[in-house]
Give the backbone structure.
Amino acid sequence: MMRYFKWGIARLILEPDECPDIIPMWLEGNDQIMHEARQWPRFVPRIGKHCRVWFGDNVGGDGSTIFNELRRQWQELVAEDEKREERRGFAMGVLSDGLKYGEKAIALREECTRQIRAAVLAVRRKRGLPDEDPKQGLVETWRQEGGKKEGKMDDGSWVGRT
């Protein structure tokens, strides 16, 4: 089961000068090598376990992809933001409040992460695994966990250092 993708991945795609190559990957077995519930010594991977990696096709780059359209919309937002006095003088990589919390900016980042997640799920599907419940990719689904930040979640998944 895959959790929702966080906005950092969207920033890595939306903010560079050129659209990066985006190669979706599906990993299987890494939980056997370094599972969150492993006992001491936690820093040592389990030997004799297998991990498999499947790669999809490039969904980014210079071609006409959804990511190029999302990047165009992001660049328009940045240009609008730069016209405002408050944007001047920001260091590279630092976002104004409008680009952090604005409705359009949030919607663009959410759509970007949804598209990346869909590309990874396509690789998963090629692997022969069944589709998962679509609500698994929504932030709202995971908010039901309450204030619990780390450890074993109610759904059986593991989060953070445990």
In short: The first helix runs from residue 7 to 14. Strands lie at 25-28, 52-55, 151-152, 158-159. DSSP finds six helices and four strands in the chain.
